[in-house]
Write a structure and sequence with these properties.
Blueprint (H helix, E strand, L loop, with lengths): L12 E4 L6 E6 L4 E12 L2 E11 L6 E3 L9
Protein backbone atom coordinates (compact mmCIF):
# COMPACT_ATOMS: atom_id res chain seq x y z
CA UNK A 1 0.00 0.00 0.00
CA UNK A 2 1.37 3.41 -0.98
CA UNK A 3 1.40 6.30 1.52
CA UNK A 4 -1.69 8.52 1.38
CA UNK A 5 0.24 11.72 0.76
CA UNK A 6 1.43 10.30 -2.58
CA UNK A 7 -2.08 9.56 -3.91
CA UNK A 8 -2.10 10.60 -7.58
CA UNK A 9 -4.16 13.49 -8.88
CA UNK A 10 -3.78 12.54 -12.54
CA UNK A 11 -5.41 9.10 -12.82
CA UNK A 12 -7.76 6.51 -11.32
CA UNK A 13 -6.42 4.44 -8.45
CA UNK A 14 -7.61 2.04 -5.74
CA UNK A 15 -8.05 3.86 -2.45
CA UNK A 16 -8.35 2.71 1.14
CA UNK A 17 -10.88 5.11 2.65
CA UNK A 18 -11.59 2.98 5.72
CA UNK A 19 -14.21 0.69 4.22
CA UNK A 20 -13.79 -3.11 4.30
CA UNK A 21 -12.88 -2.92 0.57
CA UNK A 22 -10.85 -0.71 -1.74
CA UNK A 23 -12.66 1.79 -3.97
CA UNK A 24 -11.87 3.36 -7.34
CA UNK A 25 -10.99 7.00 -6.77
CA UNK A 26 -9.89 10.02 -8.78
CA UNK A 27 -9.03 13.63 -7.92
CA UNK A 28 -11.80 16.17 -8.43
CA UNK A 29 -10.34 19.63 -9.19
CA UNK A 30 -13.58 21.47 -8.50
CA UNK A 31 -14.15 19.93 -5.06
CA UNK A 32 -10.40 19.76 -4.34
CA UNK A 33 -10.99 16.28 -2.93
CA UNK A 34 -10.87 12.72 -4.15
CA UNK A 35 -14.16 11.34 -5.41
CA UNK A 36 -15.19 7.67 -5.33
CA UNK A 37 -18.25 5.55 -5.98
CA UNK A 38 -19.35 3.53 -2.97
CA UNK A 39 -21.49 0.41 -3.39
CA UNK A 40 -24.77 0.33 -1.51
CA UNK A 41 -26.88 -2.81 -1.21
CA UNK A 42 -30.16 -3.09 0.67
CA UNK A 43 -33.36 -5.09 0.54
CA UNK A 44 -36.57 -3.69 -0.91
CA UNK A 45 -39.64 -5.92 -0.91
CA UNK A 46 -37.35 -8.92 -0.33
CA UNK A 47 -35.14 -8.16 -3.35
CA UNK A 48 -31.61 -6.80 -3.52
CA UNK A 49 -31.59 -3.11 -4.35
CA UNK A 50 -28.02 -2.21 -5.27
CA UNK A 51 -26.39 0.89 -6.64
CA UNK A 52 -23.58 3.36 -6.26
CA UNK A 53 -23.44 6.70 -4.54
CA UNK A 54 -20.77 9.38 -4.79
CA UNK A 55 -18.53 10.11 -1.83
CA UNK A 56 -15.68 12.57 -1.38
CA UNK A 57 -12.51 12.16 0.66
CA UNK A 58 -9.95 14.76 1.65
CA UNK A 59 -6.30 13.88 1.18
CA UNK A 60 -6.08 13.26 4.94
CA UNK A 61 -8.92 10.68 4.74
CA UNK A 62 -7.07 8.44 2.28
CA UNK A 63 -5.34 5.74 4.35
CA UNK A 64 -3.35 4.31 1.43
CA UNK A 65 -3.64 3.57 -2.25
CA UNK A 66 -2.66 1.16 -5.03
CA UNK A 67 -2.39 1.50 -8.79
CA UNK A 68 -5.16 -0.15 -10.77
CA UNK A 69 -3.75 -3.51 -11.93
CA UNK A 70 -2.74 -3.66 -15.58
CA UNK A 71 -5.17 -5.91 -17.48
CA UNK A 72 -2.23 -8.00 -18.74
CA UNK A 73 -1.28 -8.80 -15.13
CA UNK A 74 -4.74 -10.27 -14.46
CA UNK A 75 -4.20 -13.34 -16.65
Amino acid sequence: MNPPETAPKDRLFLADVGLPWLVMAIWNDYQEEFVYANLEVSLCDGKHDSGFFTEYAKHSEIKGWLDVPDKDMQQ
